[in-house]
Amino acid sequence: MGLTKEQLLARLQELQIVFSQYEHPVVLTVEAQDKKQRFYIVSALAETKVDLKVLSQRLGLGKGGLRMAPEEALAEILQVPLGCVTPFALVNDSARNVSLLLDQGFKSQECCFFHPLSNDMSIALNARDLDKFLNSIGKTPAYVDLEANPTVGKDQPPDLANLVPSDAAVLAVPVEKQGSSQGSEKIHISVNNQQNAVTGYICRMHHNDTFRPKLSSRNLLFVHCCDGQSMVLMCIVDLSLASKAVKPSNASSTKEKSSGAASSSISYADTDKFVEEILEKTKSIVLSEIKEENAEKYREQLATLVSNNISKLGVELKNIATIFKNTAYTEGFKAGIHHQPKRT
Amino acid sequence: MEQKTQEEDQIVTPWEVAAEKGGKIDYDKLIDKFGCQRLDQSLIDRVARLTGRPPHVFLRRGVFFAHRDFSDVLDAYERGEKFYLYTGRGPSSEALHLGHLVPFMFTKYLQDAFKVPLVIQLTDDEKCMWKNLTVEESQRLARENAKDIIACGFDVSRTFIFSDFDYVGGTEASTCNLDYFSDVSIYFQEIFKMHTTIKCDMDPAGLWFCMVLLFEISPVSCHTCASSAFTVEIIVQFLLQEHGQDCKVVGIFGFSGEDHIGKVSFPPVQVDMLLAAPSFPSSFPHLFSGKDSLRCLIPCAIDQDPYFRMTRDVAPRLGYHKPALIESSFFPALQGETGKMSASDPNSAIYVTDSAKDIKNKVNRYAFSGGQDSIENHRKYGANLEVDIPVKYLGFFLDDDAELEHIRTEYGAGRMLTGEVKKRLIEVLTELVERHRRARAAVTDEMVDAFMAVRPLPNMFS
Known about the structure:
Chain A is of the alpha/beta class. Chain A has nine helices and 13 strands.
């Protein structure tokens, strides 16, 4: 039997990991399809776009390597109830061969919400503390840029290959194959409590799907995928709860209405995202140019070559910067026209 | 009514563009006929020097190839006198194609390179009148087009977008409706009737344009018939005085001498009532008050030249600098250099809403190839670069001069095949459209409001 929620919380406290907890009743069902034995949990931020095909290649599993996992695997390997996929499940011994991929975006967030082995509660803690916990159970946290799409070919080995678990877990109950599903099915379940309504979407995805969790301001998205060679269990972490944690419920409901329209423009003027994107693009140029063969070919000029290529990036970056500026100006303009002048 | 010039070779008017006997447009002849000047290499170098950055690809490749008074603008710029940019679009449909983007891409470059403000006019009134749209529909289209224009990357702190219905004339605009325009037009038709005795061969279009021009600029309110008549009288006298029998107006719009004023039927021309006003800084008091000597530079396609010639004639009499023009050649349709792209044929153009698959399909199937009909012949004779569309498009959108030169050499010699050229073009276009789509997704209605708000632009020259 796996750890219970209480035991996990106790363990966290022992490690002096600070977290806050919220109670809520939740019931989620999951459907998935599975063929084999190697398992991964991929934990991603709500806005991160994860392409299973790309991940599959990066893990060295070929293009169709990752697919949804069945609920039996949840129960057996992770020992958590349905709808409760969480990195914390790795505390169980049965999950020792599950590989964990964490969205590197967690590191920049103040805290993230996870289920503590039971989906009637979420706890918030930050990435450092998650690491602390993972280290304590002998797991090394692997932060990955889930959106990156590096070319994988004979010269470029899959960059996440080291994350493939060495031993396959054995399922006591083999699962019969299901016909592959085309497209995705969404089952919407929502639950309310006073402060944090949690809405869950379950998607059954074809392995060709790139999915992007579609959220309104308060969602948790669980996706399970499986494929010919590996199973992926996914839990997407909802961040918005963190920011609204202490707001009274009436304020949070108005936010829900406006956040739909506003959220898209907000992300275009988000300083963090802006800088991240610039750095990502620059890094990818640098990384692609600094290679063994280029080092020989260009030798001393390699630095100049890289530098020139980065300069060419200038045009693209200026475009992004203009979008940023226009968005920020628009926000100010909107605020200005709604500004209530002081009464004299 | 047919519109032909004296020589029957090629036809270039604001309403029709046709090459000579299915060949290509002779731009040298056009420059001679219109009387504008070539944008030569020395000017391009000067631009590079003044702006401290490489000249835009459209300058390097001769896309923008003609001008009027651009060197005066540069002289003034060197002395520290800035200018403002003015361009526009008639929002006739929601779909924008790459040909529409060309002037905006170039204008963005000018804005960034010279660090000057820009006014963008959306002539929703013109389209409303001529395409029988309701005012609301016309305004909605204008806003949709504005989003695509903003997506070209204009700087909101230096750009003012306005639609004729919303902005022009103050009180007149706010009560503007279709009836107003048709009343005016009917009124002017009556005026025409009264002036059938004028000897000078002033064509209805020209007279109409002049009247409209002064109608808008004149501080006299033109609501009443009396004052309108007064204005018209002034214009007619002015023209008679200036031009007498030799009315220049005839030549500009391509009307022949026979068309006489007695023809009350409204000429099928798209006259923009307000094309002239934005060329004068006084039209934007919230931006340029007190700056009556501010010059205006208008990037446009060369077929718009006639509209602005009239404005240039009138400007000195009103005490303003003549607006300068910088003019582009036509963006060819996918099927070949027979004229302009047409919004009515979706396969004649690549639209900004096309998917990567659409682009690939359109280029592969419809782009007119200058290659030979068989591979052997192609290897032997090479491709005809004069008519090949993929190479032409690359000339517009492939920034790397060296790579373009390489493609032209290899393809022209027959060593490179059409398929390869098309493949490269597809890459370039897909990237362009993708970038545009991404930028377009970032444009919200609030952003359009911000661009269109009548507000000061304190940093427009910095």
